[in-house]
Amino acid sequence: MEHETIIKVSANVFRGDSEDWHYYFRQSKSEPRISGKYLFFSENKGELEKIAINELEFGGFPHAKINTDKHKKGKEYVLCLYYMDDTRKLELANKYKSNPNVNS
Predict the structure, then answer these.
(1) Strands (DSSP E) along the chain, which ranges?
(2) Helix locations, the chain, DSSP H
(3) pLDDT at residue 1 greater than cutoff 70
(4) What whole-number distance in Å separates Cα of residue 33 and Cα of residue 36?
(5) Residues paired with 24 in a beta bridge
(6) Cα distance between residue 18 and residue 20, in whole Å
(7) Are 14 and 8 in contact (CB under 8 A)?
């Protein structure tokens, strides 16, 4: 994954942009083994970015990505949150079910 620029978007979260994706990550000494991926959809990319930054900053997620305008299919953007396994599906669904701008 090659980024043109990397910017700091919160205290511990950085974003790197490619042509197709906005990548969000925390700097870490060790790279976690990832096997879980959680998806959220929204027409509002800003809502997805808030979720990505919040979950990386406070929720223990190491990586996330949101598609760019160029890589958007249809009306919605997609947020992919990555974790070491798939154990947090219900937790995330319950956490964001009241947000009318986001579908999981």
Answers:
(1) 6-8, 13-17, 21-26, 36-42, 63-67, 77-83
(2) 45-58, 89-96
(3) no
(4) 9
(5) 15, 64
(6) 5
(7) yes
Question: What percent of the chain has pLDDT above 90?
Answer: 82
SS3 call for 73: strand
Tokens describing residue 74:
């249809």
Tokens of 18: 């490619």
Please classify residue 66 by burial: count the beta carbons closer than 10 Å to its beta carbon, then call 0-12 exposed, 13-18 middle and 19+ buried. Answer: buried
Which pLDDT does position 11 carry in this prediction? 95
Residue carrying structure tokens 């090659």: 2
Sheet holding 63-67, edge to edge: 6-8, 13-17, 21-26, 63-67, 77-83, 36-42
